[in-house]
Amino acid sequence: MFKFLEKIFDSNEKQLKKIDPIIEKIESLNDEYSKMSDQKIREEFDRVRRQVRKRIDEINTHASDDENDGVGSSKERNINKEKILAEEKKVLSDALPEVFAMVREASWRVAKHKHYKNQLQAGYFLFENNISELFTGEGKTLAANLPLALYAISGKGAHLVTVNDYLARRDAEWNGHILSFLGLTVGAINNNDQYVYASDERVLELKGKEIEGEIKKRDYITEKEGRMKYDHMTGLNLLPSSKKETYDSDVIYGTSNEFGFDYLRDNMVRDLSEKVQRELYFVIVDEADSILIDEARTPLIISQSAQDSNELYSQFARLASQLDENKDYTVDEKSHAVMMTDEGMDHAEKIIGSKNIYENASFAYHLENALKARELFHRDDQYIVRDGQILIVDQFTGRVMDGRRYSEGLHQAIEAKEGVEVKKESKTIATITLQNYFRLYDFRAGMTATALTEAEEFAQIYDLDVVVIPTNKPVIRKDHEDVVYRTEKGKYDAIMKDIIEHKEKGQPVLVGTTSVEKSEMLSEMLNKEGITHNVLNAKHHEKEAKIVSEAGHKGMITIATNMAGRGTDISLEEGVEELGGLYIIGSERHESRRIDNQLRGRSGRRGEPGESRFYVSFEDDLMRIFGGPTISTIIAKVGMEDDIPISYGILGKTIENAQKRVEAHHYEVRKQLVEYDDVLNQQREIIYGLRRSLLKAIRDISVKNGGISVDYKKLDYENIERFLDSVNSYTFDRKFDYFDESADILNHPISVITLKKSVDYLRNLLSVQMDDMHFDNAEQRNFITQVQSLLTDDLIDRTVKELGYKDQIAYFKAFEKEEDYAKRQNLILKLLITSFIERVKDIKGEVFLFASKMVFLQTVDQFWMEHLDTMADLREGISLRNIANKDPLIEYKNEGFSMFESMLDSIDSSYIKRFYRVKIADRTLIEQQNILRGGEEVKESAASAYNSKENERESGAVNMLRDAQKPRKDNQESKKKTYKRKSKKVGRNEPCPCGSGKKYKKCCYPKYE
To answer: Which domains does the chain have, with CATH numbers?
Structure first.
């Protein structure tokens, strides 16, 4: 690690020196552009933009021609894409000096901000796809608009990811003033709303004269302050818009969650017109260490309600409260695990009246969650309780994570522990990790004040190098050595004395804590002393703006969790600099050095004076859990009183090593998450690619008539093969005169896909049942039974008559008598093709196309959803393969691949069965669409792992279409509707009637009893 950092420091100066000529070129253009009128500079920017787009369009047109000609393998096409991106970047690089210089001039004219040299450097390295480490207060927001504008002129869009909705709106509005001056459009994506930036003239036109006063007030404050500040942004110039319109903007601001969820939603649409995102081209991640490192352990999950939560959560919460730690179970805080002892197992089994608790997997599952909820998740630390809800608190930012829930039943276990309503469990329908989402972008970059300690991880996982940008002014803040005490009591007493001492001096103090509980404890201590102060934590977040605005006032004491440690700009009141600036007290060391540095960074910004000091005790979680043997040795040797600080030569190094151990542990967790999710990511890309290919083919129907003339009643083997070959080019012969009305439908891609999958399915059945090209009687009967189960009796009856047979018996007798394999295959394919044509006749026009598409997409989505649960189950238990000296990751890859292949086969077979048996009621197309689009409420969340496994199977498209035959009274009645068996009892080893392709005993048993 240290060698890695040494290389960074060695190369950092070289990189900065290397780009000096480019920076000088940008600065040299200042005289030229400063003399231009506003209109002239806009025309110049537009000229550069048109020039860039023309060259990029030429590159992509040539690439598109190669792709249409079928040039190269998949690997060669990937190499070709990299070549295209390199050419595009070269085009943008050529335009960089001019674009940067014009954005710089626009920033000065509009906001009275001109990029300093270090901001130009940061902007350049962002363009070159690096992490720019800019010290707090050095103007990351301003630096980012340089590469954003440059990538935006490509016409493919540029995204900037912020840590919360407020910053997305604020930065979009602030930079909107600048970028719109040059003709670029800007949008902001929030959790429930979307906005586009509009000029003052446009806002006045739409909102009327009543806001004219607000505009004048903003302009007056800007003129008085001498520049346009971020806190002047109130949303005045943001207009509500559709999500599609917002994503069509040149530059879009938003949070990682919203961008990620929109990607997942786009890959669940039933029509390409419903997609909102364009291609993922360029992204800058603000506070990159927070989003790409801290939040990387949390996958994004879209889920839907599954079953009602059962009473077991409450029962096992009561059981957990009756067990004793150490005697009945042990807690490993380092690995975040709880383990039952043999004595504890006996005790638990006695309480619940079970001979072996592990005989019931559900009991073991609920017991583990109940103990975790009791011992590892604490109120006012990992979560708070508000309005009867469990709200998760981000351990890195101190903020409530709205809408997020722990997965795998853990959230329900915490709800049961706290005695609030236990909500429904959920079923995952789409998921992606932030690592894999951001790796989808063609170009990516990041910026933060604290990236260097994670440089190795940025390089290995995201292929991003860290470049440290020098400050515009020297940092003069005094960072004092840590003060260490034996106990927490001694530490907090010392903190109180330090606070009082600086308050009497008039110096403002910001005290950082690691949890809501600790901040409230310190607040209570200050109240007892009668000291006025503010508290900023997850419970008082609504007062954040006011508290932050007062934190730099003389004599102000502010107690805050990590909420105040990132993204807050504390302005010093006049006269505070003379008192020494803002004084930072860290009440304990965080698990990550980056979080400590972020807290320190609230002081001493932009060359201002300041101080910082951290207080540590041996009872702090960091020292207690990760301190190692050195701490135990020191504690044994030290016999001082609580109120006397400990001075020990190696203490500072010991604290740093403890933090490094935690960081290394978390890095391994994130690295493992990426390695395992890469397996699922490959499968995800295949499934999403399958959906996109179908939807794109449907949108861009390309009919290439091969001119094959076939009389389907007289098809011989060779003609059938030629006919099926023509299907590959989306061709059906138009001379089937008896179904002229449906002829155009047969040219549709979904028709082609359906027929091809039908043929493959029957050919596979035929080859499986035959031994050495011959049937025995049992195999013949089994094959015929499976054909009859694929096609309805009515469909077969009509088809065989079209083929010239009296009835099914006559047809299948002819089939049984035929000994030649090719002719036998010919017979069955004639039956299939004619049956397919009959289905097209049955379901005419757009209803056929829509229903076929919906059944196929819902089949894909259903099996993918079940596959996610199956992969989560596999992931949970795969670590046990270590016992057999097998690599769990390799085992996961192998078994996951096998399960995925099986799922793809099941999708095909299930879709074909559903297609030939689906019934469409006599309803309008809109009614059909509404029925097919019905379903459970969909929710989005970010969870620590995949969601619960105790879920019921969804009904699927077939049941939805069957329900269409009868009037639906209401959603509840529809959900309660059960399947009534009309045929013989289903055998446990027979295919499940739901059409999944699985055995009945492993699927819906005992639903169809």
So the answer is: 2-199+237-298+437-468 (3.40.50.300), 309-423 (3.90.1440.10), 478-669 (3.40.50.300), 712-842 (no CATH), 846-977 (1.10.3060), 978-1009 (no CATH)
